[in-house]
């Protein structure tokens, strides 16, 4: 009984620990990459690319086909022995094997294999881009939760000060040092702050649910994240020249690699289409045989009377008969030969070469080649556009990161200034040199400056990570 209680307590402890688990950003990113539906779909595209490669390589192998059939027929036939018509049943079977091999098809089989390899590489780059996008999306949602929690901490901290001021003001009002209006003003501030705290708590819950849905986690109530240790870290990326970042992005980013592979695919399509202008040569080999269980007739010499004499003519002038001796044979009904004997007796072999020379097919091949050339030019323009878009995006990310850092520095200075102004206003209020309204305005500005500092901080962190990602740092290795 005691053992059972201990086991139950241990299981409850494990379950409670699982319920209280807090997710780190890295855990969220890895979980999303393993479970996100879009990533799984891209992985399926990669599997299809492997199948295409296998199919393309199969064109170098000969084709092998086998077939066979069995039939039975019943009908009226003539018996040459008895000279009577009779109903007979015939069972027959046949089998065949055909082998074909393409000796030359304008190198289209080689080009198809090359195209399949390029297509797989493009699918891999699309999967990498999908993972990068999802990682950033998860990081953005994660930082939003942290921002909301940081804002809630600011509001609660300042509300504690407000509640202390209520007690202090109540004492001063009771002593007659302050008018009752100051107490009502502070109480109104407290009510407003309590409402802001409730809104902040709701924002945290909504952002947690949004992040959980992104991760496909359904236990919203127990889902939570680690909200500590996410400070601004020094990064050399902001000190680099923007042209260096753009150059690195062109080397590492999947957008450019995908566009480059699309150009390579278009070139292979042109080569494959041109291959239809060349002759094709195929070789074939066939083997077939058959079996039937029908009876047959053979000529057999009578052993008792092997020779018969018959008149074969008359001597002209004398009228003397000319006779000759012939084998005395009769038709004898015999059964069908054994199955395997018939297969060997009735088999046949065929082999040959087939040459197909394209001469004219209504401009179908010409039109196909022209279409692939147009697609090639389009893919080149798309590559050029992708490079321009990447340059613009990276430059914008660089400017955003720089601007976000300046905004963070300005917000830090603003908090320091508002802290001094708030401390001064608090000292004056405590000694009755300022009224509650002026004090509340100073406190409101201080609270807003702290919230703005949180926003600027996490905005800079996210934009810095975006820039690092463009510089080629994998999403799972970004440091926060």
TrEMBL record:
Pfam families found in the cross-reference section: OEP
Chief subcellular location: membrane
Alphabetic keyword roster: Cell outer membrane, Coiled coil, Membrane, Transmembrane, Transmembrane beta strand, Transport
Highest taxon of source: Bacteria
Secretion signal, residue range per the UniProt entry: none
Coiled coil feature spans: 242-269
Subcellular location as annotated: Cell outer membrane
Family: Belongs to the outer membrane factor (OMF) (TC 1.B.17) family.
Protein name, UniProt field: TolC family protein
Species this chain originates from: Winogradskyella bathintestinalis
Lineage: Bacteria, Pseudomonadati, Bacteroidota, Flavobacteriia, Flavobacteriales
